[in-house]
Amino acid sequence: MKTVFVTVGTTCFDDLITAMTSIEVVKALVDRGYTDVVLQVGRGSFVPDTQSCPGLRLEAFRFKESIAENIQQADLVISHAGAGSCLEALGAGKPLLVVVNDKLMDNHQLELAQQLQADSHLLYCTCSTLPQTLIDMDLSALLPLLPGQPQKFASFMDKAVGLV
């Protein structure tokens, strides 16, 4: 069993959930050997049914007390670019693919994703480039974000969002 966990945090990011159930994304995941997809859909209006991803077992939920167990059980985490979600997945040592919501104005999430990709901690894409990113990604090239350096991460965040 090979699991993908997708999280949108507390946001509404229907475009990501819709993309995850597209024929192209489902095929890319199946071709990479994934068998299960768990979707945390947040406040979105689209909650796919269990038959939405032919060839994959699908579970979807809005919220739960903690997604730490879902992250721990995942072989790949796909997330929106929220700092909390990124930090939680990277802190768990999981390969992370961040999907940036390019419809957001003044998108600081893009800056965060770009910097973390430049440092080889994650890969990022948009909903429109997700299928090709899944096909091309090399998760073995990713480097862990070392734990126990909250000040370094805080400084990084300040720089990424333009506070310094």
What would your notes on this structure say?
The chain is 37% helix and 17% strand. The protein has seven helices and six strands; from the N terminus they run βααββαβαβαβαα. The protein has a six-stranded parallel beta sheet with strand order 3-2-1-4-5-6. α2 runs parallel beside α6 (130-136). The radius of gyration is 15 Å and the shape is globular. It starts with a strand and ends with a helix.
Index terms:
164 residues; globular; 7 helices; alpha/beta
Task: Give a brief outline of the structure.
Helices cover 37% and strands 17% of the residues.
Q: What overall form do the CA principal axes indicate?
A: globular
Cα separation of the termini: 44 Å
Number of strands: 6
Average pLDDT number: 91
How many strands, which pairing sense, and closed or not: the largest β-sheet?
6 strands, parallel
Order of helices and strands: EHHEEHEHEHEHH
- The largest sheet has its strands arranged as 3-2-1-4-5-6
Structural class: alpha/beta
